[in-house]
Every structure is written in C-alpha cells, then in structure tokens.
C-alpha cells in the first residue's frame, strides 16, 4: 500500500498554505463583488477559529456540530474544529428541530455553529432536549436568548487580533498530534426508515479517497482548476469531492449562491469541474431542449441534425469503438458550428467535467452531454465509503455503469446481488451502535452497501437499485423503480416521477409537472382551468401524460409497465420533505404523504387514470 501525501486533513491545508500560498482557495459572491481567500489566508483564518474555540474550552475529541447551508463559514468552522483534533458533526439546514436535537444528543455535541437566526431558533425550540450544548456560534449577527448562550463567528475568530507565533505553535501542536486513523467527522444518514445512523469517518478514509480518485483520473485535477460548489457539506459527496478534493490539489472552490443561481454562477466563475447530482444535469438537459423548442424551424432542424450525428459519434467512439474518419469530420464540423456555441452560452468553455453521483444518471442524458462536448463522469459510493469506490474516467468509460474500482479497493457480489466493498476509504463503523456495526460488515470485513448490482467482464460496476427499495409485486417479480422513473423524467412534461407497486398486482406512478411546459401546452390547446390543481385533473393533460407513459411502457417488459398514475399539483421538494438534500426521492415519506392517492390507483373506479 502506498503512503499518502498528508497525515490529516488539517495537515493537508497547512502544507498547501505553503505550496500554494498566494493562489485562491475560496471565492464567493458578496454584495456586487467577489470575496477571495488565498490558501495562506484560509489556513490563517482556520487557526484563528481554532484559537477562539480553545479559549471557549473545546478540546481534542470533543464533538462540535455545524448546522448551516453550504457557505464559506462552513469550511472555516470545519477546519477550525479539526485543527484541534475535535470531531465535526454536520447537520442539514433543512432538518426539523426534533431531527437536530436527536443528532446533537446522539453525538454529544457541546458546541453548535449555525448560519443564521432561523437555525438558532430551531435549537432554542428544543433547548430542553439538548443539555450537552454549552453555547452556539452564529455566522450572522443577531440577538440570542439567555437560555442558549450565543457568540458571533467574528467574536470567536477575533479577526482584528493578529495570530501570534505562540498561538499558531500551540494549535499546530494539536495538528501534529492527530493520527491518520482518528475520527474527524460523524455524518448522520438521512434516517427515512429509522433513527439516523452516525457514520464515523477518519482522516485516512478521506485522504486515501481523494488521493486515489485523482490517481484513477490520471491527475485530472490540478491547481488551475475551479470547482463550482453547491452540494451540501452535510452530505459526503459535497463534503469530500467538491470541498476536500479541490483543497488537496491547490484548486479554487467557488461557492454558488444557491441552486437557483447556478446557471448565473457558472457564467461568473467559469468553473472547470462541477461535482453534481443527476437532477441538476436533468434540468440543464431540459433547459437546452427547451431553448431549441422555442428556436426558429431552421435552427431547430439544424440542432436536431447535429444531435443525431453527436449520438452516432458518441456510440462509435465510446461504445462500439469503431469511429470512422467521415463521422469524426461531420461531428467536428457540428461541434464548431453548434455545440461550441452551446458550451459558450452555458459558461462551460474551458470546462473539464461534471462528476455525477448520489443517484443513477439516465444513459440518454449522459450521452447527450458527451455529444455536446461536455463530459460527465459517473461514480458510486456512500457516506460509509467516503464516498468513492468506483468511477468512470475519460480513458475507462461505459455508459450505464458507475465505472471501475479505484486503487486499493475490492468488490464482491453477494448471492442476492448485494455489492460489498473493502478498502482504506471504508468507515470504521457507526458511532455508539455496536449492533449496527455487526450487521454492516461480513466475516471478511467487507462493507454491505445495501445496493444491488453486478460487475461485468471488463470490471465495470452496474448498480440496479437499493436492496430495500426493490419493489416485490404480488406476482413475485423484483423490480427496481429508479430506472423506470429516470426514463419517465425524460418527458419534457414530467418534472419528477415516483413508481410504486410493493406487494401489488401492478405498478402505478405519481407525477409532478414541468409547469412551464404544461402551461404552454394548456395555452396552445385553449384549456380552461381555475388553478394548477385543476389543471392536473384536466382530461387533456391526463391524456397527454398517458401518451408520455405509453412511450416508456413500450420499452419495458409487461410486468414493469405503469398501469395507472396520478398527477400532483406541486413538485417534490427538500422543504416539503419528499427529497433528500441531494434531490433523491424519500420513498417512504412520499408513500405516507400520498397514500390515499396511491391506494386509489388500485381501485376499479374513482378519479384515478388508467394507462
């Protein structure tokens, strides 16, 4: 086994503060301008946060929670805690007060960083349930309540007080004492089926992972890269691959203002790499096709001709590996005439790649981007695997797979199809949960992912579905809902799809509408309706969705086809509880929330729509 370049994550930042001293580490929008920290600045600011935490009594091994959206303060607080050998406990800013209280209590956190008053009020609401919390540190400035002592981020870091050499030496003595096998964070899984589990990750887990990822990608990442970062740092994908990974190689992290402003932020920051989830790619895909839909007939026909050639080119080059010079010439011509203009309009001129994870990406969407000259590398992992165990690369790519193993990682397939992995990135276990740890690993120390899949003859790994999410119909058929849902979402009228059928005679679906396209259809067809809920029940809209479902049904075996569906008036969202922070469906929550509508689809009559 190779030696890794850093002893711990704080050691990584300390070394890079010398190597990349004046290079930009972090950039973010503030007012009308952009604020930037160099690597030297970033490291110094983290030491100042550590200094303040020491004065407040935070010690090695103490747990400190961060309840915040993704923002620069998160990273300063994160390393401020880690520098002392303390343990960071991330909490999603969308969590309810009760969920927040559970994580704080279970982890025994004594301090909580919050972004704003909204998050502070959550803590105040459950103050009696979180006795271990001694004080709260807030990024925004506001008045607190005497029941829950409040300190501002600026007070803790004492920005106006320069760091003395003695103070720096003291904090660096803590950094020197960190062992690579020490736990640096406890990340709590979403817990949709039971109480969330606290996954313990060590410095070794992350350092080995970010090192082997770049080695696998043949040094794809370097100090000239700009990562646009928007994923939650409470989730391992955002935390590891759009935050620690760029910091490891001297790249720049540009913080997006919000998911809604990503398109603008891409144009402003001109990133070279974006770590994302499939939902963002699906939205960009829909947006491009939308623009084409509204173009003149000449431009529309030209784009579709170009797209046909692009699809042939991608299949010939990457799938069949028999690219002819004629097809290559035609593609390059269209690339110069059309696709380069699309990339320019999106702000992806010097762009290297999207790295997609967290959920499966529809093959058609993936090939579409490669055809545009926008490469997408799909990988796989879990919180427990830090996260990456396998990934596609420019040299080793197979659409529909999640790539081949990264270095020092092993895989095996259980008799029931479950994938198990072993490697230096695998968690040491769940915090304070010995029973769960016994269940999580097999007798050889392989971690059980709960994902069903296979490894093909070339070593590419294919994920079928989550073991617990497989639908077992009344007829005994095992069906993975995700591929069907992804196919349905390719419709320009469908924003989100949820497929159900456990212990039922057939599959049904709930759809949410792409409002813009459905309203356009309603206008073109002179439909009369009172509001969106009324439109969702309109017979012509139901007929429209039925025809979209039938397109997908023709590609499926009979037992996987959708027999009935219902259209919802509002989309699924994180705020309303149907989506995780990485925009995956919370299947059990959706079923519970829409149980009446779903069960209605199994009656012979009623307001349900048959396909």
Automatic annotation (TrEMBL):
* Keyword hit for Ligase: yes
Among Pfam families, the record links this protein to: AMP-binding, AMP-binding_C_3
Q: What is its EC number?
A: 6.2.1.26
Q: Which domain of life is it from?
A: Bacteria
This protein's name: O-succinylbenzoic acid--CoA ligase
- Which SUPFAM superfamilies does the protein's record reference? Acetyl-CoA synthetase-like
Q: Which GO terms describe its molecular function?
A: long-chain fatty acid-CoA ligase activity; o-succinylbenzoate-CoA ligase activity
Q: Name one GO cellular component term.
A: membrane
Domain AMP-dependent synthetase/ligase, chain residue ranges per copy: 14-431
Q: Looking at the keywords, is ATP-binding present?
A: no
Q: Which keywords describe this protein according to UniProt?
A: Fatty acid metabolism, Ligase, Lipid metabolism
Q: InterPro entries this protein is in?
A: AMP-dep_synth/lig_dom (IPR000873), ANL_N_sf (IPR042099)
């Amino acid at each position: 086994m190779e030696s890794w370049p850093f002893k711990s994550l704080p050691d990584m930042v300390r070394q890079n503060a010398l190597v990349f001293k004046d290079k930009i580490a972090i950039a973010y929008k503030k007012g009308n301008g952009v604020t930037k920290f160099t690597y030297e600045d970033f490291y110094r600011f983290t030491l100042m946060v550590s200094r303040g935490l020491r004065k407040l009594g935070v010690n090695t091994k103490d747990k400190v929670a961060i309840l915040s959206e993704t923002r620069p303060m998160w990273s300063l607080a994160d390393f401020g805690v880690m520098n002392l050998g303390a343990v960071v406990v991330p909490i999603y800013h969308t969590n309810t007060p009760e969920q927040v209280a559970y994580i704080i209590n279970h982890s025994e956190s004594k301090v909580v960083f919050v972004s704003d008053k909204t998050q502070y009020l959550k803590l105040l609401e459950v103050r009696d349930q979180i006795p271990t919390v001694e004080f709260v540190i807030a990024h925004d400035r506001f008045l607190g309540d005497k029941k829950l002592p409040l300190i501002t981020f600026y007070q803790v870091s004492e920005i106006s007080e320069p760091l003395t050499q003695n103070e720096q030496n003291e904090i660096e003595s803590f950094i020197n004492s960190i062992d690579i096998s020490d736990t640096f964070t406890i990340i709590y899984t979403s817990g949709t089926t039971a109480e969330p589990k606290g996954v313990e990750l060590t410095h070794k887990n992350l350092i080995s992972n970010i090192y082997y990822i770049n080695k696998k990608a043949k040094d794809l990442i370097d100090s000239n890269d700009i990562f646009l970062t928007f994923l939650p740092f409470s989730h391992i994908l955002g935390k590891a691959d759009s935050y620690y990974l760029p910091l490891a190689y001297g790249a720049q992290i540009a913080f997006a203002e919000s998911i809604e402003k990503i398109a603008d932020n891409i144009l402003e920051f001109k990133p070279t790499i974006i770590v994302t989830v499939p939902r963002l790619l699906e939205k960009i895909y829909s947006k491009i096709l939308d623009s084409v839909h509204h173009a003149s007939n000449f431009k529309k026909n030209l784009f579709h001709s170009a797209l046909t050639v692009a699809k042939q080119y991608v299949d010939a080059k990457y799938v069949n590996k028999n690219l002819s010079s004629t097809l290559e010439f035609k593609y390059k011509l269209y690339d110069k005439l059309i696709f380069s203009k699309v990339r320019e309009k999106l702000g992806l001129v010097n762009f290297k790649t999207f790295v997609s994870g967290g959920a499966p990406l529809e093959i058609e969407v993936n090939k579409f981007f490669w055809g545009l000259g926008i490469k997408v590398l799909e990988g796989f992992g879990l919180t427990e695997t830090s996260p990456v165990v396998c990934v596609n690369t420019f040299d080793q790519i197979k659409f529909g797979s999640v790539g081949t193993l990264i270095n020092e990682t092993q895989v095996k397939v259980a008799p029931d199809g479950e994938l198990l992995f072993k490697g230096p990135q695998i968690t040491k276990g769940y915090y304070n949960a010995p029973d769960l740890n016994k269940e999580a690993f097999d007798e050889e120390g392989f971690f059980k992912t709960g994902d069903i899949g296979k490894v093909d003859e070339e070593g590419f790994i294919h994920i079928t579905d989550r073991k617990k999410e497989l639908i077992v119909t009344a007829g005994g058929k095992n069906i993975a809902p995700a591929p069907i849902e992804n196919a349905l979402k390719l419709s320009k009228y469908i924003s989100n799809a949820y497929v159900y059928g456990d212990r039922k005679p057939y599959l049904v679906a709930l759809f949410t509408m792409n409002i813009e396209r459905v309203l356009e259809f309603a206008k073109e067809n002179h439909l009369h309706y009172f509001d969106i809920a009324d439109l969702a029940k309109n017979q012509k809209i139901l007929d429209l969705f039925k025809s979209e479902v039938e397109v997908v049904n023709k590609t499926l075996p009979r037992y996987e086809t959708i027999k009935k569906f219902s259209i919802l008036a509002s989309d699924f969202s994180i705020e309303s509880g149907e989506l995780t922070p990485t925009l995956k469906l919370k299947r059990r929550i959706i079923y519970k929330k829409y149980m009446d509508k779903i069960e209605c689809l199994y009656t012979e009559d009623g307001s349900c729509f048959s396909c």
